[in-house]
Amino acid sequence: MEQKISIALKEIARGANEIIGLEYIEKLVRKYYETNERFIVKAGFDPTAPDLHLGHTVLIQKLALLQQYGARVKFLIGDFTAMIGDPTGKNETRKPLNREQVLENAKTYEEQIYKILDQKHTEVCFNSTWLDALGAKGIIELCAKFSVARMLERDDFTKRYKENRPISIVEFLYPLLQGYDSVAMDADIELGGNDQKFNLLVGRFLQRAYGLNKEQSVITMPLLEGLDGVQKMSKSLGNYVGITEEPNAMFGKIMSVSDDLMWRYYTLLSAKTLEEIEDLKHGILNQTLHPKAVKEDLAGEIVARYYDNEQAIKAKEQFSKVFGANLLPEILLESDFDEGVGILDVLKQIGFCPSTSQARRDIQGGGVKINQEVVKNENYRFVKGNYVIQLGKKRFMKLNIN
C-alpha cells in the first residue's frame, strides 16, 4: 500500500510547478485505495477558442492521471466567466465573448476531451448553472468575503493600477467567481496553469469562508512552450500542434522541435514514467540511442493517442520518406497575410522566430527560403500569391498573400 501511494504521489507531482496541500492529496489517494471512494478534481476551461492543442492537454492529461488514482473529474467549461474574460496577465481590459460564441466553442471541447479522459469518471459542467442563479444578493455576499487590498496582490492588477490603466470592477469579479466554482462543485483538488495560482488560492479561501469542511489542494502546471521553444503554445503564434490535426502534420510538427525541448514534451505529454524517460536520456548520453529515434517515439506516441497505432506508423513512414529523400513535405501550416507584408514580420508572426533580430540573423545566415530559394534581402516584401516559406530543414509553412 505505502509503495503504491508513494508512486502515485510521485506521478501526480511530475511536471507540476507547485502543489499546495500535498498531505490532503495523499489522504484522498489513500482513502480511494482503502474504500474505492473517489474524490473530486476540478479544472476550468474558458472556451475562448474552438480547438484544443497540446498546450491545453498538459492539464487534461494530469486530470486523466488523477483518474487512475481515484479522481472523479469535473471538467468545468466556464461559459459564464468567459463572457467576462480572464484578466490574468493582461495589461489591458479584455473583451468578453458573447454567449453564442462561448457555447459554439464549448461543443468542440466536449467532442475532444474524451480522446484523453475516461468518460465514465468525467462530468462536464457549466458554471452558468450556479452563477446565473447566484443573483445580486449572492454576488454582494461573495464580494463581501474578499478585500480590494487582497485583490491588488495580483501582479497584473498592481501593474495596471500603478500605471493608471483601467481595471473594471467586473475584472475583480473573475477570480471571485472562479473561486466560487470550487465552493459550488465541492472540489477536493483544483488544477490550473501556473499563471492561475492566485485564482486557485481564492477558491481555497472561499471554501473556508463559506464553511466547507475542507480546503482544496492546488496543483499548478507550467505553460507548454510552442514549437519555437520560446513562447507558450498558441494558435495565434502559429507554434501549436492541434489534437485534431492530420497525423502526418502532427508527427512532422513534433519532429521539428529541438532536442532540448523534446525532453520538456516528454515530461509533460508522454505517458512514459519518469524512470523510462531517464533511461532514454542515458541511452542518448551513452550513444546507444539516437535523438532522432527517441523523438520519433514521442511523435508516434502522441499521434497514436489521438488516432491509433496504425496511423502513427504511417505518419512515421511518410516523414522518413519525405525527409530521407530531401523532398518538400506536405504543408503543415497555412497562414494568411495582406500584400506588402515584410519577411521579418512574417517570420515573427508565424512563430518561426521569437524576435525581429533573430529573424534578421536567420536570413543573414542563409537559413530562410521562399519557394526553395534562399532569401538574402531582409527587406523582402510579399506580393499577392501563394508561397512556401522554410526555416532550416524541418520547418515549413504555406503563406497565402491577399
Automatic annotation (TrEMBL):
UniProt cross-references to SUPFAM superfamilies, sorted A to Z: Alpha-L RNA-binding motif (SSF55174), Nucleotidylyl transferase (SSF52374)
Motif extent ('HIGH' region): 47-56
EC number: 6.1.1.1
Keywords: Aminoacyl-tRNA synthetase, ATP-binding, Cytoplasm, Ligase, Nucleotide-binding, Protein biosynthesis, RNA-binding
Reactions performed catalytically: tRNA(Tyr) + L-tyrosine + ATP = L-tyrosyl-tRNA(Tyr) + AMP + diphosphate + H(+)
InterPro entries membership: aa-tRNA-synth_I_CS (IPR001412), aa-tRNA-synth_Ic (IPR002305), Rossmann-like_a/b/a_fold (IPR014729), S4_RNA-bd (IPR002942), S4_RNA-bd_sf (IPR036986), Tyr-tRNA-ligase (IPR002307), Tyr-tRNA-ligase_bac-type (IPR024088), Tyr-tRNA-ligase_bac_2 (IPR024108)
Keyword Amino-acid biosynthesis among record annotations: no
GO biological process per UniProt: tyrosyl-tRNA aminoacylation
Subcellular location(s) of the protein: Cytoplasm
NCBIfam families the UniProt entry points to: tyrS
Function field: Catalyzes the attachment of tyrosine to tRNA(Tyr) in a two-step reaction: tyrosine is first activated by ATP to form Tyr-AMP and then transferred to the acceptor end of tRNA(Tyr).
Name of the molecule in the record: Tyrosine--tRNA ligase
